Amino acid sequence: MKMTWRWYGVGNDDITLDHIRQIPGVMGAVWSLHDKVAGEVWEMERIQEVADVLASKNFSPAVVESVNVHDDIKMGLPSRDHYIDIYIDTIRKLAKVGVKVICYNFMPVFDWTRTDLYKEHPDGSNALFYEKALVEGATPKSIVDRILEGAGEKTMPGWEPERLSHLEQLFEGYKDITEDVLFENLKYFLEKIIPVCEEEDVKMAIHPDDPPWPIFGLPRIIRSREHIQKFLSLVDSPYNGLTLCTGSLGPNKLNDIPSIIREFGSRIHFAHVRNVKVFENGDFIETSHRACDGDVDIIEVMKAYHDIGFEGYMRPDHGRHLWGEEKNCRPGYGLYDRAMGVMYLLGVWDTLERGVK
Ligand code: CS2
Ligand code: MN
C-alpha cells in the first residue's frame, strides 16, 4: 500500500509540500490542474511544471484526481467524440510524467453533495454534513446557493461556478438520461479510452457517487456492490478500475465495504479512506477516521486491504476542520484531521504487517 495526500497545488493550497513531507509515510501527492474545467486541454508544460515541483520534494506524481469528464460525454451528445479526444490527449500527456492512476467520476451535474460545510460536532470541531430531508424538499439551485455561500472564496472541485451557472440547461440535458442510458454512455467512453490506457500503462479509477443514491431525479450508477460489478463488466480490463471511497459508499449502511474490497480488490487502484456517522433519518456527518467514531469499520476496511495484499495508492479522504482551520482550508481538506487520519491508518496497517490479528 502506498500512502498519498491530496494537494491542490502551489498557491492554491494553504498546506504546502513542506508540510506534507512531515507527515509520516506519505510518498505521493495526489494532484490535478484545478483551474481546468471539464473538456479543456491540459498543456504539457503545465503538467511538467507540477511533476517537477513534486520531484523536487521527493513526491511521486503517480495519482491524478481528477480529470473531469465533460457532461456531453455523460449525456451521450454528438460532441462527445471531441471531448473524448481531448481526454485521450490528457491521458497520453500524463503518462509521460509518470502518472499511473487517474481518478474521475461519472456523476451527472454534481460531484459530491452536502447541505452544510461546517456542521458542528459536540467537541466543537466541524465537518461536512448531509441533511436528507432538506435535499429531498429543495431545488438543486437552493442547495447550490447554500453551499457556495458557505464556501465563500473557496472553490471546490466539481462545483465550478461557471458550470453551475448553467444549472437549468444541465438539468434539461439530463432529463431523458436513465441509469441504463448513463451506463451505455459510460461504456462508450470506456471503450474509447481503455485501449489507450493499456498502451500508456495508466489505470482509470472511477470514484463512487456521493451520496450513494439518486438526488434531484438524476441517475447515479456507482453506488453499491451490484453497480460496481456491472461497471467493471462494461470493459473487462484491469485498466478499467475503481477508486474505492469508504465515505461515499458508507452513508448507505447496506454497503458492506470490507466485502466489496475483498471481492473487487484486484480492480481497486486507489483507496479513499474516511468515516461517516449515519443517523436514523438518513442524515450523515463526516467524522474522524477512527472506527468507533463513525459507522464505517475502518479497521475491517484496512484488514480487507491487507488480506488482499493491496499494493495500490491510498489516501485519507475528508477530515473535520479543527482548531479554527476552517477559516482558511478547503471544506474537508484541512491539515490536522487528515494528518491524524494518516497516522491512524498507518497504525492499523503496521500492526497488521506484524501479523497481529
Ligand atoms: C473527492 C471527490 O472530495 C471528494 O469527495 O473524493 O470530489 C473526488 O475527487 C471526485 O469525485 C473524483 O472525480
Ligand atoms: Mn472520496
**CATH architecture term:** Alpha-Beta Barrel
Mean pLDDT: 95
- How much of the sequence is in beta strands? 15-25%
How many strand units? 12
CATH class: Alpha Beta
Bound molecules: D-mannonic acid, manganese (II) ion
Radius of gyration, CA atoms, in whole angstroms: 19 Å
Strand order of the main beta sheet, please? 2-1-12-9-8-7-4-3
Structural class: alpha/beta
Largest sheet: 8 strands, parallel
CATH fold call:
TIM Barrel
Kindly report the name of the CATH homologous superfamily.
Answer: Divalent-metal-dependent TIM barrel enzymes
What global shape is seen? globular
Helix content: 25-40%
What is the N-to-C order of secondary-structure elements (H for helix, E for strand)? Answer: EHEHEHHEEEHHHHHEHEHHEEEHEH
Count of alpha and pi helical runs: 14
- What is the domain total for the residues? 1
Task: Return residue spans where pLDDT drops below 50 for at least 5 consecutive residues.
Answer: none
Termini separation comes to 18 Å
Family: Belongs to the mannonate dehydratase family.
Enzyme class: lyase
Cofactor: Fe(2+); Mn(2+)
GO molecular function: ferrous iron binding; manganese ion binding; mannonate dehydratase activity
